[in-house]
């Protein structure tokens, strides 16, 4: 049985919104579950995405450590503070869980499934005139370039590569959007109940 990619992406969005209110016990439980998920899809696959955020995680820890008032970590200095380090570590932990969940999800979904999931999330905005098909094609081209493009040698070349899209392929791009099933509805409801229970823990 396969869950609809839109339902999976919706679950991740809800998880990302709810995680700032998770308690420490719930976060340990989530960490254990994500560890199993990472082991199932492959550690190296998830690590590639997590590794790119290491600077952000360190910056978050330092920012909290040097901006949060409290007891100094070293008696002779006013900063960093113990409370700041604790708050920074907690926020970095939450961000790491969110990124790990996304990495696990991306490792499970094929590119076509990911685009179908994004299309489903954007579908409610179609009456507003949002060009969903063009957005899907643009994402497809970007992901194709990211997968097949050669790595850049300098920071400037990396920025130019990120801002430049490849030429459109000569063949047509077909995006298959699977129908929602009862299983997908039960998954969304069950995940929602689980999130609410975690928030009330």
List the helices and strands and how they pair.
Blueprint: H1 5-18, H2 24-41, H3 43-51, H4 54-67, H5 82-108, H6 111-122, H7 132-148, H8 155-163, H9 182-199
What does this protein look like?
The structure is a single chain. This protein is mostly helical and 201 residues long. The protein contains 9 helices and no strands. About 3% of the residues have low confidence. It is elongated and about 65 Å long.
Descriptive terms for the model:
mainly alpha, 9 helices, 69% helix
What's a quick, concise take on this entry?
The chain is built from nine helices and no strands. With 201 residues, it is mostly helical.
Mean pLDDT: 79
Largest sheet: none
Written as H for each helix and E for each strand, in order along the chain, the element string is: HHHHHHHHH
Overall 3D form: elongated
Please identify the structural class as seen in this structure. mainly alpha
Query: What is the strand content?
Result: under 5%
Helicity, in percent? 55-70%
Uncertain residue segments = 146-152
What radius of gyration results from the CA coordinates?
20 Å
Distance between the termini: 30 Å
How many H/I helical runs? 9
The overall strand count is 0
